[in-house]
Sequence to fold (164 residues):
Amino acid sequence: MLKSKKINRILSIIGMIMAIAIAYSVLVYLNKEQNTARVQKSSKTAEMAEQDLMYSDLGDFIASNHTFYNETLGWGRDRFVSWSKQRKQAELIANSLKSLSAENEDLQQDLNMIGNLAEKVQGGTKDKEALIKLHRFFHDLDIDYNDYKDTTDYFDVTEYKGEG
Fold:
C-alpha cells in the first residue's frame, strides 16, 4: 500500500513536470511567433513610412518639412538640437528632391539651395545656421507656395515669391 502511494506521488510529480514543460514550450513558441510577426509588421511600417516621406507633391513636401522644423527648431528649440534626427530629415529631403522639381526658375533655385543645405547637414556638419536657413526656406515657401497664413513672420530668404 505504501509502495503504491509512493508510485502515485512520483507519477503525479512527473505528470506535473511534463505539463509545465509542455506549457513552457507552447509559451516560448507563441512568443517567437508573436515577435516574428511584430518584426515583419514593423519593417513593413518603416518601409511604408519611408515611402510616404518620398513626396510626389511639392506643396506637401514644403508643408511637411515646415512642420518638422517648427517642431524641432521653432520657438527656442534650436538650443536642443537632435543632430541624428536632423541628419535623418536632411537625408529624406535630399532623397525627395531627386524626384521633385519646379518649372518656375526661382522656385527651382530655392529647391537647389534647400538641397545644398540638406546635403551639408546630412554630411554630418553641426551647423545650426544651416538648420535655421532650412527652416526659413520652408517657412517662406509655405507662405508663398501653399498660402500658409498661421503667422505674420516672413524671412524673405526665397527667390520664389508666389505666382500672383
Summary: Confidence is low (pLDDT under 50) at residues 43-49.
